[in-house]
Amino acid sequence: MIIKRYIKKRNCFEYDVRLYDENGKRKQYKTGLTSKKLAKEYEQKKRNEIAERKLFPERHFVKRKFADFVPEYLKKHASRKKTGTYSDYISICKKLVRFFGEYDLHEITRYHIESYQSERSQQVGVCMVNREITILKGILTKAIDWGFLLKNPVKGIKLEKERPRLRYLNREEISKLIESCGRNGQVRYLKPMVIIDLNTGLRKDEILSLKKESVNLERNVITVEEGKGGYTRHVPINETARNELTKLANRGDSEYIFHDANGLPFKDIKKSFNSAVKRADLKDVQFHDLRKTFATWCVFRNVPPKTLQKWMGHKKIETTMKYYVVSPDDFEQEAIKRLDGITDSSRDTQKNRQPVKLPKCLKNMVELNGVEPSTS
User: H or E segment at 352?
Assistant: First the structure.
């Protein structure tokens, strides 16, 4: 469409062109032309440019190497993540750059992504592959937002089905792990960190970034600011966790509960934790299993599922019960014994009931919700 405008300074009329661009947005282009004939030629030229951009968008994007884009993504977007999460982003992005680094963003296709997915599936587990593909999708989505890409090639690619990793520590394993954590005097923070996590169920990044101001020892509660999903929640503290937190709160001038010599929070504890697991001669134990152990023992001690869901910070109770509560053989054996004598009306089963014993570091778990220990 040709638009005629009067220009007072020049005392004449000029013709502008109004068109819809390739994204369907209406734009008005100033031509500076006083000839309607030339304005129509300009209009046709613009129409041709828009049609070409619509048919061949890859020709008109600013070419940007994946390897050059990722550092900018980490700096402007991922750096806002919490300490532990950000270190995971950096580690995964290095792997992605090794594979996609030489490609321009618009050159990455579904074929390349599925090739990467297939190659990584032979090297690592399903959970890690899915995590890497998810981060790749986030990187390319941000490239679209910043105008370097038109559509995300990861969209529509199915992630492999993950089997829930059900691992919890029994009484003996808990004792071995805590004892092992205390053997290395150079890593003083590890033992209290493990004990606190077993009694609160905090995520690893939440406990690494825990600040002293978030621990209220008068009300016996920890406030988790902006946990996973951006939610704030309150986790009660039992006596065992309180004793450890009291010692740590009075140590050093740092604002963090767990910090290095410079008062900064630890980036990760994977190396020291794995060393403790090895010294304890435990198999297949990860730091996240402490959180699962907390959830499992809470259920053992009759903490209501809805209350546990709140403490864990899960949106859905299905997540709490499916992925975080384990039903090991020893507990099942205790449970089935409770059925003894239900068909014998003359037997007093109350006298034979024995309470389930907890390890020392979890003895106050039941006090978290004011639930009396079950003797049945």
Answer: none
